[in-house]
User: Which sequence fits this backbone?
């Protein structure tokens, strides 16, 4: 396997893929060890009187060192999170992306014309593709990283290259979804019928192929070899992820590392490459570009892990696709892999490919009983914390704040 897309940290240059994965695990363990030190001997209590603002107090057996930014940031984050949970509030994505709302408005106007103007046959399909309730998270992240890194270079106006990069990112993402739906024979996406369900497999494949081709054309015209290599690697990673998934269906022997590899290829690769590319177009230092790659990679992994949790915990109406569909098709994700450690019966059901009536429902219950959901959530939190750490190189401001909140938003989707 190639490791081009993982040229993320100068200190990791030249290392093999598995060596970098081992480094990631050590960083993650170190991060959460530090958090546990803060928590030991501490009592975090939450109170909210009826009709009164919520408050949170922290008592520790030994005082937190004055000026300890890490502990202070952690406790402030706990306060914000617990208060919202008590009020049953969640972060609003619209509020998070507000600093780049005008950028996204311009992007939305361009996307349909990019696909349909030269190909009227695909116009109605394009309207279905880009009007299916997508959140535009990926281009929003591109714009937020662009604006945050521009501050370091003392730039005031976002470049045309940044805008084109956001469009390319969304086209590649959407093309991959169309092809995924064809491969998975999924009839519903984001609560609406998929392109291949409405227009047939032929139109769906053509629409996906065209968007990959169009994004490649725009990419070449960005005239930046480093970015071209980064984004081109993403398309290769998509194929690698699909091949890995197809070759391991109903395989109860796959490891968590196998799962994280596939999750990187299918989800995190695009986000990591686009965030690094945004920093490159801002003229940021190589070290900042490395950190932006890390942010995208860990955010993408956290997003995929949470997505896989939701497959077990939410209904079809909430998911916008059939609940339990991944497990039913033999795609074993983090919750199932963790539960296999404690539920031997789950392995038998997976090996049977759920041919007996009620076996899939039984498997879902075993995943929940075996602690698969909780352990997967802890893994998502570890990746999320690494994403937050990568933002420390950015100047304080609206863009950085939104990038931090984007991480929290990803985790809050579970609740």
Assistant:
């Amino acid at each position: 396997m190639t490791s081009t897309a993982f040229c993320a940290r100068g200190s990791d240059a030249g290392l093999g893929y598995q060596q970098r994965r081992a480094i990631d695990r050590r960083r993650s363990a170190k991060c959460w060890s530090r958090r546990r030190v803060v928590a030991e001997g501490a009592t975090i209590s939450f109170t909210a009187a009826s009709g009164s603002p919520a408050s949170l107090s922290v008592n520790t057996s030994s005082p937190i060192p004055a000026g300890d930014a890490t502990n202070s940031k952690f406790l402030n984050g706990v306060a914000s999170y617990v208060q919202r949970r008590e009020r049953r509030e969640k972060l609003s994505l619209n509020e998070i992306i507000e600093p780049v709302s005008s950028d996204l408005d311009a992007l939305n106007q361009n996307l349909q014309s990019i696909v349909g103007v030269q190909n009227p046959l695909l116009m109605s399909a394009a309207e279905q593709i880009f009007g299916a309730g997508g959140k535009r998270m990926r281009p929003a992240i591109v714009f937020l990283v662009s604006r945050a890194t521009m501050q370091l270079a003392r730039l005031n106006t976002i470049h045309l290259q940044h805008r084109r990069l956001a469009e390319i990112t969304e086209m590649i993402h959407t093309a991959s979804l169309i092809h995924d739906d064809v491969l998975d024979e999924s009839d519903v996406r984001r609560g609406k019928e998929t392109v291949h369900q409405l227009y047939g497999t032929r139109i769906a494949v053509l629409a996906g192929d065209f968007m990959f081709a169009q994004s490649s054309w725009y990419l070449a015209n960005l005239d930046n070899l480093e970015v071209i290599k980064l984004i081109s690697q993403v398309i290769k990673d998509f194929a690698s992820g699909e091949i890995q998934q197809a070759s391991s269906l109903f395989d109860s022997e796959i490891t968590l590392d196998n799962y994280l590899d596939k999750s990187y290829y299918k989800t995190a690769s695009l986000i990591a490459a686009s965030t690094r590319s945004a920093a490159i177009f801002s003229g940021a230092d190589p070290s900042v570009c490395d950190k932006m790659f890390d942010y995208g990679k860990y955010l993408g992994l956290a997003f995929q892990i949470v997505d896989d949790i939701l497959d077990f915990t939410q209904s079809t109406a909430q998911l916008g696709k059939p609940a339990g569909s991944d497990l039913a098709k033999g795609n074993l994700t983090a919750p199932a892999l963790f539960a296999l450690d404690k539920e031997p019966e789950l392995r038998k059901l997976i090996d049977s490919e759920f041919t007996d009536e009620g076996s899939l429902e039984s498997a879902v219950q075993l995943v929940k009983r075996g602690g698969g959901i909780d352990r997967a959530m802890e893994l998502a939190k570890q990746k999320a914390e690494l994403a937050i750490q990568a933002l420390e190189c950015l100047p304080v401001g609206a863009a950085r704040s939104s990038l931090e909140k984007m991480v929290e938003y990803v985790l809050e989707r579970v609740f």
The longest helix spans residues 286-313. The first strand starts at residue 42 and ends at 47. The CA atoms of residues 150 and 156 lie 7 Å apart. Strands lie at 42-47, 55-60, 188-189, 192-193.
